[in-house]
Design brief:
Dihydrodipicolinate Reductase, domain 2, alpha/beta, Rossmann fold, seven-stranded parallel beta sheet, homotetramer, globular
Chain lengths: ~375, ~375, ~375, ~375
């Protein structure tokens, strides 16, 4: 049995950081050793620095780790660093880490739009990691030191949206038009302060800053393909796919619900039953690679008329599975359906950990 | 000053019935005299029969009315009867009332699809009442007794949807495509038992039985036109307008939020600013007729990025005004926007009362 | 008809300040002229400075007032100033106002424990204002300029607690023991950020910093009496009354529910029916003085087994009335009951306005 | 390894029944074989009969069990039957089971007040099962057939209340006075329909029918002792302990929060630190007996000022552990504190399963 890889977490006291810590505790492949946070927390034991707000207890193994500040020197022994930093801070810190030769998987939005940075939903487009492989190979061939790199986790609501699209595109060809209206959980907004109680009690906030643009843009990158020279991702063009998102914040703790509709380019479109079967049959590469966290069933197709529901269905396959229900014909496009994904697992920290497992399976870390 | 018209309420102990009673208390045009409910309640004082669950106290004037059973004989002195009956019971009861020569405004779905029954959102298509006018005129000319009739209130979520469409169609021509994803309040489902608490706490129910079909169909009737002979409503055809609805139940007490998108038939489409101005300028006929409950501002166009919100905006113009926000271009259709309407006022009992006020203004009762 | 008194509001952009503004709009006795806020807001129109989050629209009359900073010079024409300042800022600002001769009614906690500052729940202990009267008279007799003064509004949960106690003590003598467990609304915590959504969704926070101590202490002051020389309030001693509070934050927007129990000193204790009758019969002095906002029915005694409920009962008498239900014998003390009060009306801004109306009725401003 | 005991569940389609099924799936000691429900469900596969509303999927092993009706003949091979029947039906059905010689553990209230029926919270008073042992022994000695019997699970809110009392009484002697105000979750009310959404959204229901009386009475039985002849339980008398409960329903899915206060009979009372240490040190008998479901830590004493919270703390020790926080001196009694227990685990089905494990450990089934 191979020694575990050494892992670090940036932004360890925040909401995403706490989730990384939970997912890495007792992980068969990784050993969490370094926790980075703001200077205010640095120097304290993690148990004293963090305002722990998870339903699972803080792992014993994390309690006594002394929090570091976020400079790469403190993480130089890490094989992989997971960043849960806020976008406000992530930019220069993550850049410094990459320059220091560190492998970073980031939940922040800062580098998602760099053309040579893979934007990865691990149950959807792990092949975009070929760009990193190419960098590593090039450096190796040139006799250079192993370079640092960054891989971005997608926006939480984008992850749920693209999950069912991947197998559909593989089976039935490109999507011409895609619309989604989201009902997003509040955990995605963190908790200091996150979404105000008075804003979600008996209420809907029909707006999440920047979210619609992220969804419309990121979908084009995730469904795009790696360039022939493996140097960058080629986005789908606005001509290739039209995407429209409307985003709402609702009084749900975890689990983003999306009412989506889509139209294929090819005619005739598949049947409802073909769409369902295609989704049911999908096995993501990460599962084939036997990654520890990969979902056994990537897409759960639900037949009950009133499902998926966030409280009941968000934890399928420990939050790594995506649930799709109400698949039916649409009077405007071809199909409409409801997609539910766990925003802090497949939509954030969980994706980060599964990406790391893929890197490991591919010997990239 | 004219004597008040005598009003009755069917289904008086239910959720919709209670709202009718509140809206008719101290009404300048109507005097509530008869309350009909199930045999279980009949014979009791209303205060003893009803499980009153409104935020306003039961009107003193209603407390001591002895509840009748729902036969037309008890309502023969009524100039107008408002029906809040459940669909399960409404069919034969309302039919019996009409046959007995009574004017009925019903919130039930049973007769909405009859071609000679107007389906009216009073701030949108009061001209559909011409069908009733024609019936009354015909009977009068023939020297027959004044006939009974039924007018249907639209489905609650349809009311909010069509409100902004009316002025847009008037100004910019027909709509080619219309999509809506709703986030609907629980008050619409009544309260015995209505929506279960465990179903909406930290949850979304992505399904409301029959609702999507109602929205798609009723829109075509409400935006349709009265036939030349005023005998029936001519629905928009599926070729004239494509409509798709996705309906969700959320943890909101009152106020349906809808994320809609639409495309006009005519090119070029208007600008965002033209759309806003058109909505702001709209004055509904009921207001022009000086109906008591008509909204001063029919459509409230909100400029803040995160509005409308149900808790904050549902009570504009006492629930008779509709709020529209986030009007912006859509990458798929022409525009997307968020519409908020008060489901128990403009979406149910309130519409019923305003329809009656229009009937009165037109001397139809 | 007398000219309206000129009013100002400190902390005008905050949650309490917004409520003051709503209550003062169209007030028959006061004209709102000056709005004070932080330097960040000063110089802007109120409509541009405030993040308005009320269910009623911002009063037209407030929209274009230019926000001032919080120095007394800007408020020198005010007959009365209402302070909704956070405790963090209220101390020196309110002090400076009083020294400048201004009459201040404050919602902040800073001066509540000063023995010569009345802590007033206007439906309970307006007679504590005698201390201010004495100050005014003394200055007048001495030929001095009219002095500034401060009157404190009680803590929101204390207001609801003491409301039914006042008539009970008046009728049945002193209370020996009092316990309360509160279920408090989130609006009391303001909204920037206030209570976090994730903290109240599917959750209870069984702690509100400082609240239990405030309730236990303030009760002793409000139920205490003015000293013979009218110089200060004499608190009830721990020997005179034992008070214990347990405070919880719950997912309610407005309205504090309290499960209270109490024991009288005198034996035999009154009967349940006597307690109910005493509460029903209570008419607060402010109502007798014909103050504009005073509740017609101070205490609403509810007989239904499952009332009061915050959503249904918080708006009795526009939030100035207090609802009491489930009055029954207690196996431990004499009685237990449920008390509901509107935390932002009788528990905060509304009390401030009613205190000002009492001052006016007494010719003290 | 011994063969598993055969288990049945009555009321299998209901909320409590579903929880029993989840807890019994993959249980090392029990094999679930018989599911009983109403005639409406009998004859169907469980997957077709149940409206499954748990966050965990229906166990595969239960899906295809054909639902029986609730007559003992169908359960004659069961070593133990768990009843989740509604009180409306439980009376005669459970009686018939006992007469047929079957061992029943019931969540219904019907037989709790029978003096020879143990009312057991398994982490508190398993010694009350001696009454059953005595019955079994007597029958055996008399050469009679093994008799049926019934053991009652306590009311959900009582379970949480008595959990910390047990070790306190053991260490510091009897309790003189006990008060509790509950904030109870809605899952306890089942889901067809259970608590209505409109009743708990932005609201509190300050009343749960019969609950206060149950808590006051059941506490006296659970803390009482088995008679010398082991024929019945001797309740604490009203003179021995005064108990007062006030019960509220709040918008929480699972987890009852209780604000309790208590006074010991003995003087001097222990210190806060002694109380905490006593609770921390408590190891319930079921854990000592190595029962599968017994909590490793029976009482979790929390030091953070704002804990326990239902969303964060209800799942300690899989819902079998009880959390206690804010232990502090009380100005009226000796101590006040906040207790949180999982109402469907230690407060209902979970207790039933743990009682069965104790029966097995004692060779009573």
């Amino acid at each position: 049995m191979a020694a575990k890889k050494v892992a670090g977490v940036l932004g360890a006291t925040g909401s995403v950081g706490q989730r990384f810590i939970l997912l890495l505790a007792d992980h068969p492949d990784f050993e969490l050793r370094v926790l980075g946070a703001s200077p205010r927390s640095a120097g304290k034991k993690y148990i004293d620095a963090a305002n722990w707000k998870q339903t699972d207890l803080m792992p014993k193994s994390a309690e006594n780790i002394i929090v570091s500040d976020c400079s790469s020197a403190n993480f130089k022994d890490c094989d992989i660093v997971f960043s849960g930093l806020d976008a406000e801070y992530a930019g220069p810190i993550e850049k410094e880490f990459v320059e220091a030769g560190i492998a970073v998987i980031s939940n922040a939005k800062n580098y998602r739009r760099e053309e040579d940075v893979p934007l990865v939903v691990p149950i959807v487009n792990p092949e975009h990691l070929d760009i990193i492989q190419q960098k590593l190979d090039t450096a190796k061939e040139a006799g250079k030191q192993r370079p640092g790199f960054i891989i971005c986790i997608s926006n939480c609501s984008t992850a749920g949206l693209v999950a069912p699209l991947k197998p559909l595109v593989d089976s039935f060809g490109p999507i011409d038009t895609l619309t989604t209206t989201t009902l997003q959980a509040i955990s995605g907004a963190g908790f200091s302060p996150g979404v105000s109680g008075i804003d979600v009690l008996d209420n809907i906030i029909p707006y999440i800053g920047g979210e619609e643009d992220k969804m419309e843009w990121e979908t084009k990158k995730i469904l795009g393909s790696v360039s022939t020279d493996k140097s960058h991702v080629e986005l789908l063009t606005p001509e290739e796919i039209k995407v429209s998102a409307q985003c709402n914040r609702v009084a749900v703790s975890d689990g983003h619900t999306e009412c989506i509709a889509l139209k294929f380019k090819n005619r005739p479109a598949p049947s409802v039953e073909q769409v369902k079967q295609c989704l049911r049959d999908y096995v993501c590469d990460a599962y084939k690679m036997k990654c520890h966290s990969a979902p056994e069933q990537t897409i759960h197709v639900l037949e009950q008329s009133d499902r998926p529901q966030p409280r009941l269905d968000r934890n399928r396959d420990r939050g790594y599975g995506v649930s799709v229900g109400r698949i039916r014909e649409d009077p405007v496009l071809d199909f409409k359906m409801v997609v539910l994904s766990h925003n802090t697992i497949i939509g954030a920290a969980g994706s980060g950990v599964l990406i790391a497992e893929i890197l490991l399976a591919r010997n990239m870390i």
